[in-house]
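Quick illustration, no need to memorize.
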Amino acid sequence: MNEIKVLYDGALALERKGKPDDAIKYYTEIIKLDPGFRAAYNNLGAIYARKGRQDLSIANFEKALSLGEDEAVHFNLGTEYFRREELEKARHHLKAALRIHPRMLRAHIVLAYLYEKAGAPEKAEVYFKNALVVEPSNRMAALGLAVSLTGRGEEAAALQIVRSYLKEKPGDLTFENLQASLLLATGQVEQSRQEFLKLAKTSAEFTSFTDHVQKARSEKDEEFSAMFEGMDLKIQSRTRRVLETRKKQAAADPTEKKQEVKDLMDLSFLYLFKGDSDKALQLLFQAKKLGEETQGGEKPAS
């Protein structure tokens, strides 16, 4: 038993020193000496997960689960199956983690993204909201919910989420830009213009918004990377629709023109998330101009 303790302490020290391959050798030796040493399997699973080896990480997490159940091993398995897009298995383990620990924040968030990926945004909304109950100022949950609602055309609800977050965490540039964009999407054009002008005048970071988002996108957080999946495809799809509308000379049809306004605003919003603030602002004010023409110069209700 003393030998196992020495090996285990050594493995942990090697991990801290950034030597995972050497740590793997120690954990493997521990398992040879004591096949029931659960922590070795769990830690091996975590190392292989960081290496992107889902086959080996899952095998070790499953072995750890067979030796004892807790919320951590279920969450680890859930995230690994999520990475492999085995969504039903991921759902099973994430919900198992929540049965053991109902306030496990990350499990709620990953389940929300899982349901987004599965095409069930209403269920995703439930878990984003659950996460905000656990931690009302959680950025990932608030941003994920705002994106989800906007994707479903519920801009007013998304705006409410953004405003609630900004009350808790004022000064978040991404949310301030979202607020300005969503104000436009909900017909509050003048307020939107004022917000963008305020950002341009008062925020030293406004001119480097692209860098801000690109840095955020590079974070290794699972939820954040999942949030940006498919953004380029959405932009391409919405751009095609705008072009098709124009080819049909939609200006002669007020209904089609209103759709074009919405498409331009949606496209602006997507570019905002992609990190191209210049393109987002260009499309935003194209939408504003077209919207005013559609309404015969009348000011939209605010």
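The CA atoms of residues 214 and 296 lie 39 Å apart.
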